[in-house]
Design goal:
Layout lengths: L1 H46 L1 H6 L3 H13 L1
């Protein structure tokens, strides 16, 4: 009997996981695209940090980061 209940619980868990995955899948690709944009922006700003400071662009960079991060 314990084996049967364990099997039933396993099947129930897999069914729940499958349902959740089906519902969330359409949101995953756009989220990953936005995360890629954010990572690319961050990488560029870190590598160009001296130029940002040289041309006093800190506020503009902060605003752009906030916009991208908000999406």
């Amino acid at each position: 009997m314990p084996t049967l209940s364990g099997l039933a619980m396993t099947l129930l868990m897999f069914a729940c996981i499958w349902l959740v995955a089906r519902k969330t899948q359409p949101y995953f690709v756009p989220q990953q695209k936005e995360l890629g944009k954010l990572n690319g922006f961050t990488e560029e700003m870190i590598s160009g940090q001296k130029a940002i400071l040289l041309f006093s662009r800190e506020k503009k960079v902060e605003t752009e980061f906030a916009d991208i991060n908000g999406k």
